[in-house]
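#structure-requests
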Amino acid sequence: MIVAFSISPSGGDETGGVSQAVAEAVRVVRASGLPNETNAMFTNIEGEWDEVMAVVKQAVDAVAASSPRVSLVLKADIRPGYTGQLTAKVERVEHALAD
């Protein structure tokens, strides 16, 4: 499965920024060893249901350590029996664009 998620604390720093808290969540994802990528809006992670959801929970906990309230947006592509889809889905679209 692939999960795209975004975690943010309820409030930012003195400038309204949330990058420090978000960096803690991304650090957890990268330490998990699961295939992942981060873009301007979401972090994508691929793996089995239990391992992906455990990482999402750990990332939420990391942000919650510095904020009394946390927002989580999560979208999942659940397709049993498929792996490597984090890049394969994009490659299929790029191939279709080249045709």
